[in-house]
Amino acid sequence: MLRLLKANPVLGLANSYLVDSAQPSSLSYLWNLGSLLAACLVVQIVTGVLLAMHYTPSAELAFASVEHIMLGTILLVAMILTAFLGYCLVYGQMSLWGATVITSMMSALPWVGGDLVELIW
User: Fold this and answer.
1) Could you tell me which residue ranges the Cytochrome b/b6 N-terminal region profile domain spans (predicted)?
2) Is 64 a member of any domain?
3) How many domains does the chain have?
4) Angle at 110 between CA 98 and CA 106, to 5 degrees
5) Rg over CA atoms, the chain
6) Distance between CA atoms of residues 13 and 5, nearest Å
7) At 116, phi and psi to the nearest 5?
8) 120: which residues sit within 8 A by CB, 6+ positions away?
9) pLDDT of 18-60, one tens digit each?
């Protein structure tokens, strides 16, 4: 792995800036929080530009745009549920407690939480 980091020019550059560079001993959690906020700002700018590129200001295409967004959200939730199901299929101690935590979160839903947990278990 180390040879790959040194041989590849792009990975070598990233390695020299992120891993091998000297860091001062006065780094704190607030400095890391600032880096996290900067990364969140970059993500918001990139997603904002992507959303602006796909924006159509017409009433005829408004429903299609909302339908497209909702379909993407449904696919995202289905992907997350599939990954969680794969995690629970191992049926070890960690997967048991993972399933317990998720079902406990579902029981916190108002009105339908208890029925939803009974349906799943």
Assistant:
1) 1-121
2) no
3) 1
4) 10
5) 22
6) 9
7) -70, -40
8) 103, 106
9) 777 777 777 777 777 888 899 999 999 999 998 888 777 888 8
Give, in degrees to the nearest 5, the angle at Cα 29 between 28 and 35.
100
Q: 52 lies in which domain range?
A: 29-58
Q: Among the residues of the chain, which ranges form H helices? A: 2-7, 9-18, 29-53, 62-88, 93-107, 113-120
Residue 35 covered by a domain: yes
Q: What does the pLDDT look like over 4-14, one tens digit per residue? A: 666 777 777 77
* Rounded Cα distance, 15 and 21, in Å: 8
Please, what is the average pLDDT of the chain? 84
Residue with tokens 């939730």: 77
37 in any annotated domain: yes
> pTM of the full predicted structure?
0.49
Torsion of the alpha carbons at 95, 96, 102 and 106, rounded to the nearest 10 = 150
pLDDT band at 109 (very low <50, low <70, confident <90, very high): confident
Structure-token pair, residue 45 = 């700018």
